[in-house]
Amino acid sequence: MIAPGVPKDKAITVQRVTAAGAPAYLLVPEGAEGCAVVLHGYGGCKEEVLGLGLAVAAAGFTACVPDLPGHGEHLETLTGESIERFTANVKNAGFVAAVGHSLGGRMALALGIKPLCLLSVPLQARFDGRKSELLRVLRARRVREPKPFAGLEEALAALGDSRPGPPVLLLHAARDLPTCLEAAVRAKDAGWTVIAVRGIGHTDIISAPEAVAAVTAWFKGVD
What we know:
- The protein has seven helices and eight strands.
- By secondary structure, it is an alpha/beta fold.
- It is globular.
């Protein structure tokens, strides 16, 4: 498999593995140095963020792309306890960089790993908005949790409210959730690199060409 930005004579090997106790994909470019974890959002799955994994691999890192608890092939229910266990497992796995979207971004913040790239993430440990909008955008129907949004609320509370200093890259969608747009303003004040991706929404950002290219460029520029 060849990822955008990777020389055509350098393939990326894709493996199915168990990482940090979760089903995952491992994307290994030739000559990789270090492994980054790529975390999907609430209502998503590892397959949805393979493009972000390829973006990381295009920058020369191995990318590990797991399912979060309650999502995809991860059999645990999403609760505060399950996200705490998973976060601890990921912390102990030796990753040298992190990428996270939505809930995965909140988890990436809690890992204390840099370089760090976040997509459509609120700086506060909550998602605000009308219930109808949250149901449509956040896709609770796809999550195994005690009741809709209950696992999300527990997970966000368990992850806390970490705000590291720069360098951090925050990408947000032009039509993002209000809480994520507010986060972008605060992130600029905190000295983070902030990029608005036009013409898309909260979920679309994970596959937007501009966002994928920005992730690769960010990791290529890391010292």
